[in-house]
Amino acid sequence: MSGFIEGEDRSQATLFPERLDDYIEENSAVRVIDVFIDELDISGLGFKTESSNTGRPAYHPTTLLKIYVYGYLNQVHSSRRLEREAQRNVELMWLTGRLAPDFKTIADFRKDNGEAIRLVCREFVMLCRKLNLFADAFVAIDGSKFKAVNNRDRNFTRAKMKRRLAEVDESIDRYLKQMASSDRQEPSEDKTQRLEDKEQLSLTDPDARSMKCRGSGIVGYNVQTAVDVRHHLIVAHEVTNNGSDRRQLTNMAKQAQSIIGSKETLKVVADRGYYRSHEFLDCDRANIITYVPRPDTSNNKARGQFGPDDFRYIEKDDQYECPGGRRLDFRTTMHSKGMTLHRYWAKDCQSCAIKSKCTTGKERRVSRWEHEEILESVQMRLTNDQSKMRERRATVEHPFGTLKYWMGATHFLTRSLDRVSTEMSLHILAYNLKRVIKIVGIKPLIKAIQV
Ligand code: SF4
């Protein structure tokens, strides 16, 4: 092979450098993982650090935690693959001191330390705060659906179960006629009972739910995040099995607020899926400024009639001005869906020339929530600053796109809300770690961790 670059002789004794450390570059991310985990208060976070006096000694939690963080940073998520990597990957050998736990030990660590692993993710976010990376106090809140292990065919909603039961009943009838036997329908009744308790039944992952996702549906989880607008770091996250975002705004905003701190007023932007009056009230009371567009749900507008925006409230007179130029007076108060609503209408709609564009009833009635001024200020803020929605779009797509790309076709590997939450925390820790390394650099980051 003369004339070509030649490799080393495999049988020679000095093929590898003598020190394992010589293999790891000064600027390697694995050094950040090492320092970050070594600096954690492992027992304070809830990991078990006392060894038992009997039996084989266990692996220290830092070893297993390092394996997991390294694995998620390099898109190796399964315990079996991590076991293999620990045996052959030089960076992992360096990280663990050449310890190579078997896959069961690795898997059990993730299963038994869910809460503590989630706190490690939070510790890294606190480090980001220490590095002043959330100085803008501005986050975008968004949710995305992630697939569970559960196959669609093994998830049953009420409607689907009803259809299936009808099919089962039909086939049982046929069977009964043939066999002239009885009581064949018990198994399906049992499932009906379980379904009545839960609304949905998922056979593989009992916590996974069928939810709408981009026009179709998936069986999975709804992952909520609050993402820092400047650096696209995930400040707070939560995994839920509720497919709707409508009740998540305050919850996520408060989590972000507690991490960012109360020095600055937190600004929050979200899409119209989060629009809910009570959420704005709660955010307002918590000193959180919200930017959320109002969804177009007006029935009048859908019928081609004037919508709520066409009526202007005149505060000093406590009246509305309608598109016909007349005044609507306050008439009564009613309560609906936990809201106190003041009702307004004009006395002479019957004589209005444009009544057909306004109402088919005797007169047009307008409702005003007792805290309507909060909704008006949300609207006003968005009208005055259109850039907020552009910033939202540019912010939330980055983390979710990256996370789903890393996760591949099958998103979660574990089952149940608790374990899926742990898995998500590891993904988010890896995502934030990568982002901060890019923003701050490895050496300054190591220095900041060690302070
Ligand atoms: S119908 Fe009544 S509320 Fe509607 S525009 Fe005419 S006067 Fe105003």
Brief synopsis:
By secondary structure, the protein is of the alpha+beta class.
Please characterize this protein's 3D structure:
There is one protein chain. The protein is of the alpha+beta class and 451 residues long. Among the domains are: 20-112, no CATH class; 152-203; 299-370, no CATH class. It is 43% helix and 17% strand. It is built from 15 helices and 13 strands. The protein has helices at 29-38, 61-73, 79-88, 90-96, 103-112, 114-130, 158-179, 186-198, 249-260, 277-285, 299-302, 372-384, 387-407, 417-440, 442-450; strands spanning 138-147, 155-157, 200-202, 209-213, 216-228, 234-240, 266-270, 288-291, 312-314, 319-321, 327-336, 339-345, 365-369. The strands form three sheets. Strands 1, 4, 5, 6, 7 and 8 form a six-stranded mixed β-sheet that branches. Strands 9-10-11-12-13 form a five-stranded antiparallel β-sheet, with no helix packed on it. A two-stranded antiparallel ribbon has the order 2-3. Strand 9 and strand 10 form a beta hairpin. Helix 1 runs parallel beside helix 15 (442-450) and helix 6 (114-130) packs parallel to helix 14. The radius of gyration is 29 Å and the shape is globular. The protein starts with 28 loop residues before the first helix and ends with a helix. Mean pLDDT is 88; it is low at 182-190. The chain binds iron/sulfur cluster (SF4).
